[in-house]
Amino acid sequence: MEDTHARLQDLFVGAVTVGERGQVVIPxxxxxxxxxxxxDKLLVFIDPAAHGxxxxxxxxxxxxxxxxxxxxxxxxxxxxxxxxxxxxxxTG
Length: 92
Hints:
Blueprint: H1 2-11, H2 28-33, E1 42-46, E2 53-57, H3 58-84
Antiparallel strand pairs: 1-2
């Protein structure tokens, strides 16, 4: 439990207030640790329970997409190999 608590403390970077127009200021520590610069585009997702939001930089989402695509391609190749069965032996 202590390890989880320490990790959560490392992830917490501050609190923000939602303004009248729905705007928030991302804390400087979060911007620094995520290498966010003025003009960066962020994707915003609502969490499944609708209790909050998650933001991710668009360029990082492209990277995640490429990584996941590579994993899915590899899994597809493995499934194809399994469906084909073991290679036939040339002994005989």
